[in-house]
Request: fold
Amino acid sequence: MGIKERRKREKQFRKKEILAAAKVLFFEQGFAATSMNQIAKQVELSKGTLYLYFKNKEELYVSLLVEGLSLMNEAFVRAVQDKTTWIEKLSALGWAYYQFSVDQKQFFHINVQFHHGEITKNISDDLYQQCAEAAINALSFLSDAVQQGISTNEIKQEDPLSIAVILWGSLTGTIMLHEGKDHRKFIPAPIDLLIEKSINILIEGLKNNEPEDKAKM
Amino acid sequence: MGIKERRKREKQFRKKEILAAAKVLFFEQGFAATSMNQIAKQVELSKGTLYLYFKNKEELYVSLLVEGLSLMNEAFVRAVQDKTTWIEKLSALGWAYYQFSVDQKQFFHINVQFHHGEITKNISDDLYQQCAEAAINALSFLSDAVQQGISTNEIKQEDPLSIAVILWGSLTGTIMLHEGKDHRKFIPAPIDLLIEKSINILIEGLKNNEPEDKAKM
DNA sequence: TTATTAAATGACCAGTGGTCAGAAAATCAC
DNA sequence: GTGATTTTCTGACCACTGGTCATTTAATAA
Reply:
């Protein structure tokens, strides 16, 4: 029964065609400024057909993120492959993430929007899960490096995953603050210096930093 | 000429009425799901009138942020007023920011959207400037504390403003990652623990951390 | 009272995201 | 081949959107 499989392949192909068309327009114009009509025209299908492949505009938009996160994971693999110490690894991952936010600016922006949640509200559980898994996978690069630092007793922490979230969040926030989609900027410092200091501070902060039960002031 | 002034006051009042109505709906439903028609109905004005006071939907939305940033600044004033060391100050500011993101969740979200830039693209330079100034003002609390640490030689850094941006960005990112508007969560660690660790790491990272011209690996 | 200015209206516009009955195309059964 | 069945696709249609603007209404000035 090769026909069923061929049809399935063709359906997948259509989906990818739609995604490719959507990518062009979303990346050029942003989410709000891009309409389903435009996408339909670009991919030479009727608008109704788009809804056979994606439940709504948000789902189509966030689906792009899957590719983006995959690219990011590849970058992370490359970043750590020839590194040995946890410091080298974390530093390389930090820089790889920053580089990703430059090279794949648009993906980075979708990622921020995904985590912010306003656009994400209407996407399917399935797609959400896909993105979450990819994100967790990215986090694991960080937490592995942290775990290594814990093993060698250079980092005094209990939960490497928590630390990974902090590292990831810190860089995401700092980059976002500086590199928004609006052309206007009010932050004086150059971004690469910011990233350098940021990575440096975070790594230094992890060294021999006893976990303590401070009162929350 | 008291009439001119009275009219000006009345106009300001109208503007505030519109903002109040918009706030209710935007906070309940989010930006995209709230329409200008709804807001007009809520404030008992025609839709056209809204556009006499705000140039577009985004401008109306982001205008809310001005109030939010003002609240945040007040919280920052309270946070540092009885603190002496830079560590106490930074810690208190960090917690105050987190508390703000909980108490004024919606304002925090607008702030993220503002910095992300997708929604912000169409707002006036005037409003942008207002928000930028308020943000810089908030940053100055942080950079003042950092400056204090530099003065006492406990922090080895050159540009306190850059550090302030990093601190602000780090917390913003970490909170955003964990507290998106989507109900679904995939980050296991409790947020307050994350914040505690985050503040701790950042402060430790600042202590005696020589600024160096490391190659970017 | 009349003229002037300011404020508010709502019908109107092009376009939106999304739906769905029906057309078109491909596959299956014979 | 033919007709029945299933899958894919279409585009007219819907309620509604953000935004505009000639016109009306109200307030002030002369």
Residues 3, 7, 35-37, 47-48, 51, 56-57 of chain A lie near DNA strand C (CB under 10 Å from a C1'). Residues 1-53 of chain A form a domain with the Arc Repressor Mutant, subunit A fold (CATH 1.10.10.60). Residues 78 and 120 of chain A are 30 Å apart (CA to CA). The two ends of chain A are 68 Å apart (CA to CA).
